[in-house]
Every structure is written in C-alpha cells, then in structure tokens.
Specification:
The chain is an alpha/beta fold and 492 residues long. Helix content is 36%, strand content 15%. Strand 15 and strand 16 form a beta hairpin. It is globular, with a radius of gyration of 22 Å. The N and C termini lie far apart (47 Å). The chain binds (2R)-2,3-dihydroxypropyl phosphate (GP9) and manganese (II) ion (MN).
Length: 492
C-alpha cells in the first residue's frame, strides 16, 4: 500500500509538472525522425478492413521450423511466403516488464512501454492517447478488440477506451468461456476463441479494424491431450518442450480463421497484420535454446537473435516478399499507416516507417541495448550483426562511433517516450486538424451495451457481412476441428 501510494504521488507529480513546451520539444525531435512514405506502397490498401492478429509469445525462429520432419506452423509458413505478404525477418520485440501490454502500447501508439511496470496499467486509464483505433475510427472505421481473458487484465478495459476502441469483446462476451475445459492458462483456447469471435466479426460495419489477441501459446505451454496433435521437442526442459505444441495449435487456429474469412468474402478486402508480442522462451533456458537451434552453446548474439518475432503485412495485391530491414514493434504503426495511406505528419510516434527508402534500421530495446544492421549491443557485449562475431570498442573504431550514436539515440527515444507517458503530454496536443482527442465516456464495454450497439449498427450502417447477407448468419461457414465443440452444437 505504501509502495502504491508513493507511486500514485510520483505519477500525479510528473503529470502536474509537465507543460505544453515539453510536448513541443518532443514533437520537434519526432519531426526529425519522420521519413518520406514509400510511393510503391503508400495508400495502396486504403479503406480496407484491418485484422491485427496478435500471436502470443510467438518467436520468429518458429517460422519454417521443423520437429521430426514436420513443420510446426504450416499455415503461418505459407502465409509468410505468400507473394502478397510482406514479411520482415529481422524484426524484434521491444517489450519490458509489461510484456503483452507493452507490445500493445507500441503497436497501437508507437510509444514504448516503461522501464518498470506496465504503462497500460499505470497510465492507460487517465492519459490522453492518439492511438491507431482512434485514428482509424475518425476515418470511418469500426474498431474492436477481441480477447478470451477477463477484460481487466493489463487494465485493458480502461486503456482501450483511452485508445478509442468502439468495442472490446472480452471473456464475458463468450458464453463458451464459462465452460471449464474450454479455457486453458489465461483464457479461452484459441480455436474456440476465434470461432466464437466470428459472431461479432460478422456484425462489424465495414471498414473495420479488428484486433484479435490469442493466448493459448503462453507460458507454461500447457495443452490438454485431446488438443495435442504435434510432437514435443526433446530438450528435457519441461517449460520449453511444449512450446512447439501450443504454437502448432495457434497455427491451426489461425488456419481455421483464414479459411472462414475467405469463405465469407472478408479475405480480399482486408489487410492482415500479424506480429509476435515477445519471446516465449526466456534467457533462463539456454541449454534448451542451444538444442532447439542445433548449437553447442548460446552466446549473447544468439540471445539477441532470439528476440526476433514475426511481423507480416498481407493484402490481396500487396507487393510481398521477405524484407530484411531491421526494425521492431515501435515501427509497426508508422509502417502500417503508410500502407493504409493515413497521413502521419503531426503524430507523436517514436518508430519509423520501415518501408521508407530512407529507413536505416535502429532497434532499441527497453533496457537500452540496441541493434543496427552493422552492430548489435546485447547484455553489455557488442557483435557484428551480420557475422555474429564479438567485437570491442577498443579494436573497432567504427563500432566506437556507432555505439556512441546509438546509445545517445536509445536514451533519447526511450526518455522522450517516457516523458510523453508519465507527463501525459498528448493532452496538450490540441491544435491538430486531422485528429481530435476521444472522450472516454463515449465508450461502454458492458456486454449488454456492446450487443445493443452492434444491433443498432446493422440498421444505421448496414455494411457488415451479416447485414450484406440480409441478416443470415455466416457462422455455419466456420469450420473448426476443436474437439470440445464436436459433441456440442448447442451454442451454434
Ligand atoms: C493475458 C495475456 C497475457 O490477458 O495477454 O499477457 P502476458 O503474460 O503475455 O504479458
Ligand atoms: Mn504476451
């Protein structure tokens, strides 16, 4: 209680001390970071629906990874290699202690999480944000977040209002969530969660922005026998060996969702953004990591690589391919805004557009470590990013220069981002012509309110799949092999 009281006091104080000139200073810096859009991509997907698919604890090494000759994630692999998918293979998670919530903070705002604790928990309720859902909402989108855990986890129920989400479909919206064996770990099993999300997806007026947060692939990677359909790895580390099994389950869940979206006609008029939120296997499991990667031992360079997570943007007609640009979660929003053709001149984002031809690739971790295409600093050691060779500042003059620039850059972006959050600086951003602050009071995530709003929307804006289908549900198009649902059609 004393700790909380001190913290609340500090929070109130830093907010009180903050002034409009603090924001002006930050904005000046952000403007120097702003890169020109890529004319090959800019606005090519304008007006399409956006599916933001949060792949829980999903690391990049799982892509194309095999166990006993079998692909762990065949559906995601196919998607990754699709000619209409832009896939980044040097993309890093940048979360701190806020884990999932930090990934969301970066993905929705291009603001870093904090050095300690979760920014969504500490500041999500009261701060002013200029978030992706609010931006798209003001451009005619319906915005909705979906998650099979309780609404209060990571303070989402309050934070999503500040982010401007019209709807938040959390556990209470899913009648199946009441059944004990339909849940595992933090929430509903992904196959059931995604299948049951279709009843709300089909009601969303288009265009919509829908964020689906999966959760079954979460530490300690437990799955009940009837859902296990893949061999575990055999490192002997119990918390590691189930990881490929829950990842495989997530992959199947994703495959089922995509098949449904194709059937109901949402595939071609949607942009799909997929990202892994953070590592699934921590540094504490180095012998197991070495076995997974087929190495004798693990260096800090390997551990840096192990922070890579997927980032893919897919859309029918989008110029795809595997892109080796170095970037991280903080860059997702400016990159997506480019593709969607949303002007971002006045926005306070700490990431950069990875598609810009001027993009250089400066990845900053929350603890101040960093990666560039030439050098990597991880756990206080330096490496050549391309070869993995360890280097020192005394032997490598160029490194000395890069290290100096990068550590100054890291201090600046992390420090300024922290100032924005702890000082609630965006409340001073009142002069923008293309964005106005949202009013948290306009949002109500109670199930009865959400359902009523959806029902009303079918008449006031009949652009949902359901309305286009003259009120006939598409749920019978959703095919899942979830064993729990086989013997139980009552909820269909
Ligand atoms: C729970 C989920 C887990 O709702 O998002 O968060 P994490 O433990 O990965 O930060
Ligand atoms: Mn997570």
């Amino acid at each position: 209680a004393v700790f909380n009281a001190v913290q609340t006091y500090n929070q109130t104080e830093s907010r009180k001390r903050a002034k409009p000139t603090d924001l002006a200073k930050v904005k000046k810096f952000v403007a120097t970071q702003k890169l020109p859009d890529n004319i090959q991509y800019y606005g090519t997907q304008k007006g399409k629906n956006v599916f933001m698919i949060h792949l829980e604890s999903f690391q990049q090494f799982l892509i194309d990874y095999k166990v006993d000759g079998q692909e762990v994630t065949p559906n995601l692999n196919k998607f990754y290699h699709d000619q209409n998918t832009l896939s980044f293979d040097n993309f890093y998670n940048q979360v701190g202690q806020g884990k999932t919530s930090d990934a969301e903070m970066m993905q929705e705002n291009s603001l870093f999480g904090l050095a300690t604790g979760s920014a969504m928990v500490k500041y999500g309720t009261n701060n002013t944000f200029e978030s992706l859902p609010a931006i798209l909402g003001q451009r005619g989108y319906t915005t909705a977040a979906f998650h099979g855990d309780v609404a209060s986890f990571w303070n989402r129920d309050n934070t999503y209002k500040s982010f401007g989400y019209d709807y938040f479909f959390s556990k209470s919206y899913y009648s199946n969530a009441n059944k004990a064996n339909y849940n595992i770990g933090y929430g509903m099993k992904d196959k059931i969660f995604l299948r049951d999300s279709a009843q709300y997806i089909e009601q969303l007026p288009q265009p919509f922005y829908a964020k689906l947060i999966t959760v079954t692939n979460h530490y300690p990677y437990d799955l009940d026998k009837q859902n296990i359909d893949f061999p575990a790895t055999k490192t002997g580390d119990n918390t590691v060996d189930g990881y490929v099994q829950t990842a495989h389950y997530l992959d199947q869940s994703f495959g089922e969702l995509m098949t449904y979206l194709k059937k109901v006609g949402l595939y071609n008029n949607s942009v799909f953004v997929l990202y892994g939120d953070h590592y699934g296997i921590s540094e504490n499991h180095q012998p197991a990591i070495a076995q997974l990667l087929g190495k004798d031992e693990i260096t800090n360079y390997d551990l840096a690589n192990f922070q890579k997570v997927p980032f893919m943007i897919h859309a029918t007609g989008l110029k795809g391919g595997i892109n080796h640009t170095y970037g991280g979660e903080i860059d997702m929003m400016p990159t997506l805004l480019d593709v969607l053709g949303v002007p971002d001149d006045g926005m306070t984002m700490f990431g950069q557009d990875m598609l810009s031809s001027n993009y250089k690739g400066k990845v900053v971790f929350r603890d101040g470590d960093w990666i560039t295409p030439t050098y990597t600093k991880f756990n206080n050691q330096y490496f050549n990013t391309q070869t993995g060779e360890q280097v020192t500042e005394s032997a490598d003059k160029q490194l000395k220069k890069v290290a100096k620039t990068m550590s100054a850059y890291a201090t600046k972006v992390l420090g300024y981002s922290d100032e924005v959050i702890t000082g609630d600086l965006l409340r001073f951003d009142t002069s923008r012509s293309d964005f106005h602050a949202i009013n948290k009071k306009d949002y109500n995530y109670k199930k009865s309110a959400g359902l009523a709003a959806l029902k009303k929307a079918q008449k006031s804006n009949p652009s949902s799949i359901l309305a286009q289908n003259k009120g006939k549900s598409t749920l019978s198009d959703y095919v899942t092999d979830a064993p729990e649902l086989k013997s139980d059609d009552s909820d269909k």
